[in-house]
Design a protein that fits this description.
Elements (H helix, E strand, L loop, with lengths): L53 H7 L2 E2 L7 E2 L2 E2 L26 H16 L10 H23 L14 E5 L15 E7 L11 E6 L10 H15 L3 H5 L5 E7 L9 H21 L18 E6 L1 H9 L10 E7 L12 H18 L13 E6 L23 E5 L14 H4 L1 H14 L11 H12 L18 E6 L12 E6 L6 E6 L9 E7 L12 E8 L13 E5 L6 E8 L5 E3 L21 E7 L8 E6 L5 E11 H4 E3 L4 H7 L1 E5 L6 E6 L9 E6 L13 E6 L4 E5 L4 E4 L22 E6 L8 E7 L1 H12 L7 H19 L5 H10 L1 H19 L37 H34 L8 H12 L4 H17 L3 H25 L3 H36 L16 H10 L3 E2 L8 H17 L6 H19 L6 H9 L12
Length: 1148
Amino acid sequence: MRRHSSGSSEDGDTSPVEAPHVNSSNSSTWRPQARSQSPTKPEHHHRTSADPRASSSISRRSTSINWKTLDTRNGTTEKLPSPTRSTPPSPLSLIPTANGVQRPREMEKAQESMFAARHNRWRSPWAISLLALFASIAGIGFLLAVLHSSVTRQIDPKGCRMSYMRPSYAKLNDFDTEHTRLASKYSLYLYREQGIDHDTRVRGIPVLFIPGNAGSYKQVRPIAAEAANYYHDALQHNSAAFARGVRSLDFFTVDFNEDITAFHGQTLLDQAEYLNEAIRYILSLYLDPRVSDRDPDLPDPTSVIVLGHSMGGIVARTMLIMPNYQTNSINTIITMSAPHARPPVSFDSQIVKAYKDMNDYWRHAYSQQWANNNPLWHVTLVSIAGGGLDTVVPSDYASVESLVPDTHGFTVFTTTIPNVWTSMDHQAILWCDQFRKVVTRTIFDVVDVHRASQTKPRAERMRVFKKWLLTGMETVAEKTAPRSDPNTLLTVDENSDSIIAQGERLVLQKLGTAGSVRAHLLPIPPSGSPDVKRFTLLTDVKLDNPGENGKLEVLFCSVIPSQPGQTGPGFPSQMDLSKGTTGTTRLACRNAASDGITLPASRASNRYPFFVDGEKEVLPFSYLEYEVDDISEHQFVAVVEKTTTATAGFVIAEFSDYAQSHVTKRTGLQRLLAFGLKLRLPAVRPMVTEVKIPSLQSSLLAYHLQIGGQTCKSKTELFAPLVRQYLTEPYESKYFVNARDATVSLHGVAPYVPPPLTRRPAGEDGLSFQFWTDPTCNSSIQIELTVDWMGSLGKLYMRYRTVFAAFPLLVVALVLRKQFRVYDNTGVFISFTESLDLCLRQSIPLMLTSLTFLTLSTASNAPSGNASFWHWKNSTSPLIDFHQNDFLIGTADPMFLFLIPLIGVICVGVCTVLNYVTLLLTHLLSIIFSLLTFRPGWVRNDDRKKQANSVFSPSSPRRRMVTTAILLFLVSTCIPYQFAYLVACLVQLTTTVRAQRIASELRSAANSSFYNYVHSILILMLWILPINMPTLVVWIHNLAVHWLTPFTSHHNVLSIMPFIVLVETLTTGKIVPPVTGRLKHVTSILLFGIAIYAVVYGVSYAYTLHHLVNLVAFWLAILHSTSDSWSISGLRHLYSGVAEDRKGGKEP
């Protein structure tokens, strides 16, 4: 008969389950004895080995738990007595030092011994201390408050109108594997609108639509249908548009089989490679007379306009860095809800690298001083973000300010775009009717079929984009009317009373009351006046263009010197208002309608800036705004009432002092958070008042704006207060009509978003408000801005939801570290909740406090004079660190350092919930296994024991070794290691279920320790599982579409082998041996390093967490193997759990 070590397990052995050995030189070794039939208490033998090597041998010996039940009598299982130590430490005793003072390290050991002494009795893993309970409840409470706020507070209203189309798609089958290796996976289609497009011949300008993550090629239909209908109804017979080079648009779209690009870098690169070949093929179609119906006098197209949704916009930018990119084949990119600034998640190393390579290329290209050295000089990039309703991709990530200068692109929100004025979710941005109309008109305005590039030059394209997508009130908006050619000759009577006195305001409450055409002339102040002036005009009627016969026209006029016999040839439009009198003045005028700004109508009946389906269309207001310097070369502003009958409508026009209309409140953020901001607008004030608050820049805070006090008494107000909130970078504006109170949120400085290429002056940063109020009411207005604390909680959800892939590992790693430290010192592996209680008393608070002060010191040590370093003068300064926000909470602003402990507390609650969910799952599975192995009462005891053993006994060592070898071979060839990791998690779950059942049936310290050990390892692996799941989903999706080509990455055997070895070792019932020497610090250092890395770098580089935990698994596998020498027999022991006694391994 073979002789085995006390901790071994072998088939047929029915020895009692033993507790782990205490492998410490200062601890006695105890072994529980089986209960005898006599009533005497079990004896405890204290042996001292004479061999000086005994202590080291014991410290390296592993402990095995026998998966078999004990011998039974009368159908009942005998239980072991509660093991006790020969000299258990007193929980309340202090360890004095030489001077009688207790050292912190010794206090910690005493605390650990207290837990170990308590754990000598079987302790339920469900138990939790009051400290851990309160901390967990607080964490879950904060999390629920954040989630509740995100769905109930600060929600933008939905204003999209439904779009309709009659789609058809023509698959281009000739684009096959002869053109690209990916043709068997992806397909290219040409969109055609039924009833308008009658064939599939290409005749217009090519536009390529790229769907996003898991998107469909059919998502092109709303915009493509609108383009077809608009050209058919409005442009094809417009001779002026035809002369400008406007033609129909040929929309091509790609079927990616709903590929998942947001989580997998290789898929992103594959799509970019395929699309470059697709563009080459699309351009070749226009050279083939069999499929092309273009005018032969037109140049052949050399580029394609690209329209990308979500990750499709990232694919579009990636195409320009691919080796198969055809130079100048792309010069216009419009993206919708695309995360340009950073990847949505960092679970895959390749997508992080793809983003870095792509963004570095774009920044380097625009850092070149000369255009010839910039491969992207002719490329324009416009990023359109959906705003607060987009809960798929944070709209902060849509910013391109860190990638391109404002001469080549910008970021704009849909709430800014005229006649759109609504936020949109991730999918609505494709079908929103008012938005698709703006996009198609913008594309038609940038195309020029007379050029080979099919588009206008870059500078003209940028002007078109700013005209259609911005409000017109931005500093970059160009005013064209004052410098245009005179187009109207206005003749007025010199003695007319239509000239408004200097400094007075023009107010028309109705139009056409004079019964004839009438002009109101406002003298323009001289340019060098001491008070800076600006001209503003607001009306609720449309401003006429030259030659139109509407109600109202605004002109900038200059006096024509009187010359005998001169007439007015050369003016397309003439208006003679002199009434035949002899004293007349002739004015050469320029129409101002081209600079008209569209504002949402604000009346007492309006609720939102937009109208939805089923509501009556609301005509917008028209607004003009000029600095005096812009119109200083003219003498008058002429407001012409062209209607001759009394018509409803108002006009307010005035010149106002800059000092009266602009207010800058340099209130610190701390003071604003504490007391809010109150402002009073006097009764005598300009029509438009602008308030700038430079300290309001963060997107993490939400506010509540209240406007009150305006009363018109007996008069009827011309319009209700209208408020615009806006940022200068990115271009985000929101309008509040009939404003009495408003919820204010912004997308300004956001966590984890890189800094911009250009740093604006301090005065231009921050949130601004524009107030349009009726100045005829002669009443003051009270404005109050306060922080919406509950609404601000909801802003944390979108900005910090990815932290839960990393920050909880801080808690789990520290808890596991404490468990190993207690185990190495006492031989008892305490439960997860017991270790969490210990960590909450010291390590977790210290860690969070240290990280907070570290971030604070880093922020305070940053030089304040670095503003010049951020200035971009046609070159990207190497001092700009675009990765400075990649760490910790993504911001160094001291105001938000409280987020570190707040997120830490939330993670404590989340980890506690996961712990109990795992406990519940293992208990449910254990109950299911018990039902499956139910033994009727008439079954013999021996048969009952055999049935139990058959369910819970591990498989043979040979089978486990073969399974491991096959799994590793598959990982190295065809399956990603993420699949093997999922298998490892399932195996570990099974092991935990078996350990839970044994620990509950045979309540002993040894069984409890092993169960706590495998349970904590399972918790650690479960937190890594979400990082691996996206790649596994991509692989399964590829199999579903019959794409069997393996990934070029994710086949590293070393990335999964330690996990497989560890979980297979745990199936044998072996607990890791305690380590009493210096090597025990290795486990502590590894877990402490994971905790630090998870908090500092985990959000931006989450994929590395798998490899760090893999390193811990490798170290634990080594510890498991130290019970035998490094040999083939040792490897067999690692899988079988059979270890021979080091001192007496011979068979009798």
